[in-house]
Design brief:
This protein is α/β, with parallel strands linked by helices. It has 4 domains: 176 residues, 3-Layer(aba) Sandwich (Pyruvate-ferredoxin Oxidoreductase, domain 3), CATH 3.40.920; 181 residues, Rossmann fold (3-Layer(aba) Sandwich), CATH 3.40.50; 72 residues, no CATH class; 116 residues, Rossmann fold (3-Layer(aba) Sandwich). The chain has an 8-stranded mixed sheet with strand order 6-5-4-1-3-2-14-7, sandwiched between helices. A 7-stranded mixed sheet has the order 9-8-10-11-13-12-20, sandwiched between helices. Strands 17-19-18-21-22 form a 5-stranded mixed sheet, sandwiched between helices. The radius of gyration is 26 Å and the shape is globular. The mean pLDDT is 96.
């Protein structure tokens, strides 16, 4: 069992609300769910869609096929109606669209009229549509009605009842009219957790003890700020909407210097404004975590589309040389754990840690049994209170064998905590001499990097280690690559390596991934950018050149069928 529902319409028509509701219903029913969106950069009008895939087995990528289409505008019928098979169903409201469409898969359901007659207002037409889908696939409404009660409880019993009646009317109408509907659902199982990439980063932030988040709204990172702002009271985190990205990173650095875990988030254009603050973090060795949401550029580019175009920007931006770590989660689960790891390594080594993602990962929702909180790391690496006061002396930038100096909290002891954006000595005071400069560069950069490299996990292997064909990717390509490997494995010896911890590149001590690539007959690096940024970085660091590269840079993610076709064309 593997079905895909696409909801199409204009911005402002409730496309996302319907999609979110259906995803919740299926996840609470116990199905595996994967969702993604495609939307224009406008508040009203245009054309958007939300796609929900649900199955009785794990799913991690979008399919091309559409089993059920909910069309809230004429364009949805024109664009996608032909993609619905004869056994599928495309539902629409001819009165709202002012047009009657004909075809074996098309079913006219009067969303607005049913909402007016049974709920008292046409505004609940979307709830009718959700109820209709439940009727089409043969699901009862108990879980949907429970979601309606949760969603509208604060608005009173009258609103809950009206929406419940709307859902019931849509359900009954679909059951009555869709005699040809033939969808077979697997048996129910326990509810699953449904979470998006941005929510997972936000949850990882809270689980890591972050106490301050500053940002300026910028798609696709805004979802992190919105998530955290909704948890301020419950978790004691301060969320500040700054006037711009320059202020945001400097606020985060100020909070970190003062003794709390701090974070900021942005997209490429905003990150460009943060680079001086990034260098300030490098010089003062102030821990900070940055969520960098990639989108197609340059400049404003396609602000609501997806791309992996900022990897080298994240690695090489900011003036001067200093260490940093870059994590690129491929799933919400990875996003949760890697956000936690970013906080841990930022604090442990007193460096900037960047969690880089894209709109596709940020907006997609996945289902899980749950996250293992025992895997989280939370060590307070700072000197505080009595332990700080007991020291005979304190030097903020003391030279150490590890390169990591004691990180004292200002005001927590009699010792002064001094640092400076100019080059400084061990006490934190400005210097000009060459010997101290050399010592500080070696401390900050060369002594930390070997230890940092040892912290980086090897790429995740899916498939046999001696495969003749090896796919390589990073970040959000994980789920699409995994399903492509599954689809091709019956006919080919194929595997994949996915890098979610991309800088420093992991050592080959625990897993010789470089040796695996060298023995393969064909290696394909798959990226959502035009220049193959990871492939270039990989070759510059290891000397290895991939035999093939697959790039996509139109702002849309691969579907399983598209990527499988691209791979097949290259491997024969």
């Amino acid at each position: 069992m593997d079905y895909t529902i696409r909801i199409g319409g204009e911005a402002g028509q409730g496309v996302q609300t319907v999609g979110d509701t259906l995803a919740k219903v299926f996840s609470r029913t116990g199905f595996h769910v994967f969702t993604h969106q495609d939307y224009e950069s406008r508040v009203r009008g245009g054309h958007n869609y939300y796609q929900v895939r649900f199955s009785d087995r794990p799913v991690s990528a979008p399919r091309q096929g559409i089993d059920i289409l909910i069309a809230f505008d004429n364009e949805s019928i024109l664009r996608y109606g032909g993609q619905v098979p004869d056994k599928g169903v495309a539902i629409y409201d001819s009165a709202a669209l002012k047009q009657v469409f004909s075809g074996p898969a098309l079913l006219d359901i009067p969303f607005s009229r049913l909402a007016s007659e049974h709920a008292g207002s046409s505004i609940m037409a979307n709830t009718v549509a959700v109820g209709a889908v439940m009727g089409i696939i043969g699901m009862e409404l108990d879980i949907l009605l429970a979601i309606i009660r949760e969603t509208f409880a604060s608005k009173g019993d009258e609103v809950v009842t009206a929406n419940s009646n709307a859902a019931l009317s849509g359900h009954l109408h679909a059951v009555k009219k869709c005699k040809r509907c033939d969808f077979t659902l697997a048996r129910h199982s326990p509810a699953r957790m449904l979470i998006s990439g941005t929510e997972a980063i936000g949850l990882g932030t809270l689980a890591s003890g972050c106490r301050f988040y500053a940002a300026y709204p910028m798609t696709p990172s805004t979802g992190i700020m919105n998530y955290l702002a909704g948890k301020e009271t419950e978790y004691g985190i301060v969320v500040e909407q700054a006037e711009d990205e320059i202020s945001a990173i400097n606020m985060a650095l100020g909070a970190s210097y003062a003794g709390v875990r701090a974070m900021t988030g942005t997209s490429g254009g905003g990150f460009a404004l943060m680079v001086e603050g990034l260098s300030l973090a490098g010089m003062t060795e102030t821990p900070v975590v940055i969520a960098l949401g990639q989108r197609p550029g340059p400049a404003t580019g396609l602000p609501t589309r997806t791309e992996q175009g900022d990897l080298l920007f994240a690695l090489f931006t900011a003036h001067g040389e200093f260490p940093r770590v870059i994590f690129a989660p491929g799933t919400p689960e990875q996003a949760f754990y890697l956000t936690n790891k970013a906080f841990d390594l930022a604090e442990k080594y007193q460096i900037p840690a960047i969690v880089i993602f894209d709109q596709y990962l940020g907006d997609t929702c996945w289902t899980y049994e749950g996250f293992d909180l025992k895997r989280l790391a939370h060590t307070d690496y700072r000197l505080r209170g009595e332990a700080f006061s007991r020291l005979d002396s304190y030097r903020r930038h003391a030279l150490t064998d590890s390169g990591v100096s004691p990180l004292g909290v200002p005001g927590d002891a009699i010792h002064l905590v001094v640092t400076d954006s100019d080059e400084h000595d061990e006490d934190g005071h400005i210097i000009e001499d060459a010997a101290t400069r050399n010592a500080m560069v070696e401390k900050r950069l060369k002594r930390k990097i070997p230890a940092l490299t040892g912290e980086i996990a090897p790429p995740e292997l899916t498939g046999p280690p001696d495969a003749g064909i090896v796919l390589v990717g990073w970040g959000s390509t994980f789920g699409i690559m995994r399903e492509a490997v599954g689809a091709l494995s019956a006919e080919h010896s194929i595997a994949m390596l996915h890098f979610s911890e991309v800088w420093p590149l992991p050592s080959t001590g625990s897993f010789d991934y470089l040796g695996m690539l060298k023995q393969a007959k064909k290696t394909l690096c798959i990226e959502q950018n035009a220049t193959g940024q990871f492939a270039r970085l990989f070759r510059s660091e290891t000397g290895f050149k991939f035999t093939e590269q697959i790039h996509r840079y139109d702002g849309r993610p691969f579907t399983v069928e598209e990527l499988t076709g691209e791979i097949s064309a290259r491997i024969g």
